[in-house]
Automatic annotation (TrEMBL):
InterPro entries: FAD/NAD-bd_sf (IPR036188), GMC_OxRdtase_N (IPR000172), GMC_OxRtase_C (IPR007867), P2Ox-like (IPR051473). It comes from Rhizobium metallidurans. GO terms for molecular function: flavin adenine dinucleotide binding; oxidoreductase activity, acting on CH-OH group of donors. This is Choline dehydrogenase-like flavoprotein. Keywords: FAD, Flavoprotein, Oxidoreductase.
Amino acid sequence: MKSADVVIVGTGPTGSAYARVIRTEWPEARILMVEAGPQILPKTGGHLDNVADLDERGSLEVLAQGGDRTPRMPINKEEWEARRAGGFDGSLLRRSGLFIANDGDPQDENLFAGFSAANVGGMGTKWSTGTPVPSEIELVPFISASEMQAALTTSAKLLGVNTDPNAGDPAAIALRERLGAVFNAGRTPDRFVQPMPLAATPGPDGLHYHGTDVVLGDLVDEPAERFSIMKETACRRVIHDGRTVTGVELASTGSSDTFVVNAGTVVVACDALHSPQLLHASGIRPEALGRNLNDHYIVSQISEMDTDVPMKAMSWIPATRDFPYSVTIAPASLHSMPRSGDIVGQPIGMGFFVSSDISPDNRVTFDDTRTDWLGLPAISIKWRQSEGDKARLEEAKDHALAISNIIGRPAAGFATFVQPVGSSLHFQGTIRMGEADDGTSVCDKTSKVWGFDNLYVAGNGVIPTATATNPTLFSVALASIGARAIAGARRTAA
């Protein structure tokens, strides 16, 4: 396409949601998606966890991890023993796609690990598929409850959410009953201990995980003049006059030759690090751009549970106003570790999600003198842990041990430990929405960039609140609001 009604930069869950909702609300729209990485699976946007062969899956993950496609070394014995003792495990900083984006010492509490996914489907090819509903304290305060509920319902349909994907698991049901006896009092039923909702479909061979293939649906079968994905193409700049966007400047990845695609509307849906990077490179630099970088912590605990029937299902303790933590409990696989420990019962892993304080000083910065593999200003991250963060983490460790004893007991030789900041890959706040154009936000509640008529942003980065819950359902819901705004405005204008 040399021109499109809508250009979406990024093919992850939120970019794909924009495409799907715009098509539904504005059937005649010509939509172009731009992706810096390759298509790694035959099915557009399919999920990597559906690839059964682990060696093949590992090779595909390397192709999906952005500019650095160096294979990651597995955990070694020393790192595993450090993790068991509750100390620093350097292998957590060698996960596919992670990169260190500041100068902190590897064991520094202020180290922040960044992430780059570059392939058709973005993080939709790699995400956990966890789709828990955010709590009332995490929701955007200036979006009405009815509008947010409708958007969350739309999001669940787009992602194909299953609220009980491993229904009938007797061990999981028994565990939820024990946990519920402790946590359900004073909660509304929607916040009771429950199965973890997943974007997945049960089948005879286990769960089939949903990527952006499910979100896009039959869009990928449309004629190229109506819908297309331009892969292995970097967006170097959004072209604009300071108020109106007219197109995007693109280049084949690794090439210095650029070309322009004219656009009626542009949606920047890279991720919470690379969306502000592209806006910065385009000369769109509101005061809040890249600031308020936020990510929840993960406190990890390995437990062992005595059960006659092995547990398969995941369980979830939702966050509430009185319990501002989100807890995921699932079977733990220790087969790839150098030493599994002296575990008698079934190993159970717990991810105890802890929110972090929002500060405008925690931010992404860009170096105009150095470029990355996309030809854009190199990213650095400034991050400092707050005293409030430290206090919540200590409280969370106590909670994790208490829950471990409800599950069964803490596994022998496995200490409670805190994963490095950024490990959740749920970065937020860097293109945050706000109620007013007062310098503290980048976009309005429809995700339209302040001061622009036809420029929108998408992804976890628009979330303005402190959260402790997997954010994909939330960010796709916000994307659906923005997509409807685009379709409504453009239909009216036409």
